[in-house]
Amino acid sequence: MDSPRLCICFLFILNFVVSLTTPQPEPRSNRCSDTGNYTTNSTYARNLNALLSSIPASSDLISDGFFNSSIGQNPNQVYAIGLCRGDLAVASCRSCLNDSVQAIIQACPNQKEAGRWHDLCMLRFSNRNILGSMDNSSVYVAWNIGNATNGGDELGNERFNSLRGYLLFNLRDQAAAGSLRKYAADVANYTNILRFYATEQCTPDISELDCKSCLNSAMKDVTTDCNGRLGCSSIKPSCVLRYETYQFFQTAADASAPTPLVAPTPPMPQSPPPIPTNTPGMHDVSHSCLNYSTTVIRIKCYGMVVITNA
Ligand SMILES: *[C@@H]1O[C@H](CO)[C@@H](O)[C@H](O)[C@H]1NC(C)=O
Ligand SMILES: *[C@@H]1O[C@H](CO)[C@@H](O)[C@H](O)[C@H]1NC(C)=O
Ligand SMILES: *[C@@H]1O[C@H](CO)[C@@H](O)[C@H](O)[C@H]1NC(C)=O
Ligand SMILES: *[C@@H]1O[C@H](CO)[C@@H](O)[C@H](O)[C@H]1NC(C)=O
Ligand SMILES: *[C@@H]1O[C@H](CO)[C@@H](O)[C@H](O)[C@H]1NC(C)=O
Ligand SMILES: *[C@@H]1O[C@H](CO)[C@@H](O)[C@H](O)[C@H]1NC(C)=O
Ligand SMILES: *[C@@H]1O[C@H](CO)[C@@H](O)[C@H](O)[C@H]1NC(C)=O
Ligand SMILES: *[C@@H]1O[C@H](CO)[C@@H](O)[C@H](O)[C@H]1NC(C)=O
Question: In angstroms, what is the span from residue 188 Cα to ligand 5's centroid?
Answer without folding.
Answer: 8
